[in-house]
Amino acid sequence: MQISGGSALVVGGAGGLGEATVRRLHEAGARVVVADLADDKGKALEDELGVRYVRTDATDEASVRAAIGEALAAGPLRVSVDVHGGPATGGRLVGRDGEPLDLDGFRRTLEVYLVGVFNVMRLAAAAMAGQEPSGESRGVIVNTASIAAYEGQIGQLPYAAAKGGVAAMTLVAARDLSPSGVRVVTIAPGTFLTPAYGKAGDQLEGYWGPQVPHPKRMGRSPEYAALVQHICENDYLNGEVIRLDGALRFPPK
């Protein structure tokens, strides 16, 4: 599928992985809409690159529809990438005090990390389905899970459940959308070093880097973005969850 000339929606596009993706798709000729809640970073990207920033809550239907509308105004929606984040609760299923994990916190984590992804995916897919194809596809949806979907660590149950749900939706969504020519692929990143960590980045690199089999470092945002571009351009990638983790497997904690 050709990226150039079409529009691309990047939900969470002001964050580390998202910003790298915005830059990569912009360089490839896409008319990019940055959908995020980080106004300062989003507007800075808009000023620097000439992309469009739209304040967007991934869990809100009207908000996502507005962002998709901006993308469609710029050209046919060929690419939707969802890499948004948000608050996540954690803790052991039963704490040392004997109390069970908070139910409301579990629900909130699923709302952000699973329901939000579903909301973006369904609305983007509907927008893509009525378009003329580009090559063999009308569009491609790239979601973001985590290796925690497979090896969630102690205390990560809500996050692992949400990311596991994103991974599980991938093949079903791809099958559902196959008559429309819309592909669905999920990336499951390992430990990635993003600007959000700030000064703590060196400490994290020192901890996680030696645990990655090869290369012995944390991932870099441009590596995520490069995989997004390849997924867009390779029409035979569909219904797959791709681990991007240097062969890392999370230990229990």
UniProtKB/TrEMBL annotation:
The keyword Oxidoreductase applies. The keyword Membrane does not apply. Gene3D superfamilies: NAD(P)-binding Rossmann-like Domain. Keywords: Oxidoreductase. PROSITE patterns: ADH_SHORT. InterPro entries: NAD(P)-bd_dom_sf, Sc_DH/Rdtase_CS, SDR_fam. Belongs to the short-chain dehydrogenases/reductases (SDR) family. This is SDR family NAD(P)-dependent oxidoreductase. It comes from Actinomadura parmotrematis. The lineage of its organism: Bacteria, Bacillati, Actinomycetota, Actinomycetes, Streptosporangiales.
